[in-house]
């Protein structure tokens, strides 16, 4: 489950604000249980237990099903990721871009793979040839089991300017046929041939529907990813503020008209679990691949 700091997330925060409900989550992480079993384990009456279960279900943390006269509860989520607002004061000018995820310029992908738009799949799934379909620019979600996709990021620097820092963000997850909430994958991101770092996605999520995912997407397909931040500075490269590589902003060639941005799952990765990229009107974040480029004037 991917949360942000907004009113929509309050039911989840409220559900977790209880030692009893945290205890119930721990119990359900081991096995499915009925009301009587949970009530006995936590030492509370069945009506009070049901009240706690209802709050967890309303927050989409657990699911319940009826088996005869029994109410069986189980966990819906494996992880809960909370994205806090990040604001970094930088005394520089900047330009920003947002690339549609279908605007890749090069690729080498292996099935399972495919493209999806607002009205359905684009081309045939699990056939890499369709990654060159002219309609790919309409894609709001793409996925592949291993390989890479590359984008061209424009360089708007003038001759008398120098780059100070780059910030990129994208909504990402692993890739498993349909979905698998516990399916780690090492996704490596690089710019201008220099690695920013590798992030290990914990899974390919379908525990709940994505906020923006179109209705035609099946419930057991990729629903959303995690919004990841990639930063290149004069001190190194960072993923979500954590040092990830020694690439410096000065390693980028300022003379190029554009830099190549690559998302890759390497054959040699420890966790070869694919990559899904979510774009506009898909997932939990209504955005493509965003970039913010800070620069300063070179003094004469």
Automatic annotation (TrEMBL):
UniProt-listed Pfam families: HTH_5
Annotated HTH arsR-type domain residues: 1-95
Organism per entry: Lentilactobacillus raoultii
Gene3D superfamilies cross-referenced by the UniProt entry: Winged helix-like DNA-binding domain superfamily/Winged helix DNA-binding domain
Protein name (database record): ArsR/SmtB family transcription factor
Keywords of the record: DNA-binding, Transcription, Transcription regulation
